[in-house]
Amino acid sequence: MSPSASLSLFAVLCVCGVQQCLCFPNGSVAYSCAHMMPGHPPYKPSNSNPPFTVSTSRDTYRPGGVIAVTLEVNNSSSSYFEGFLLQARSNDEDALLWPVGKFTNINTTMFTALHCKNIKNSTVSQATGDRKKKVELTWEAPSNSNHGDIYFSATLVQDYRTFWVQLNSSSVRRDTSSATGVVSSSVFLFISLLILIAFS
Known about the structure:
By secondary structure, the chain is of the alpha+beta class.
């Protein structure tokens, strides 16, 4: 083989190798934990309206509680997605608070769990490059959550050239009613005790 032919073959192999490493059809995209950007050079995120929605089963959460999170194609669209990346984030702009909580009951034949920021199962992506119309996952809030309101952020990949980054759900508010109830009960008991002591 001539030197020029060898060089051309080497270049093709390098490009294919890079593309394979960057596409990650099995969802191993831990390097995207923060920016959620897939490595698909030279392509950039689409600026068109995404044909997908990110929704939750509840608009509030409690520490230790669970929420179903759904990624799906809009009813009016014939589109699909091959890959995704999903995590919960705090509404606080401090990136140190990302991600929040963890995903549970993960079907490992369909999904890949990632341990972003060394938080086990804090992020989920696809396990295969099969076309998808809908994905539903279960998220569990931290038992000692101090993150306040949160939202779910997703990157959805239709194909190597077409993808949308950081599509966000509506905010999910932290439900503080139980904590307020405990405080109110404690105050009531304390006042009652003072009254009993005063009249004893």
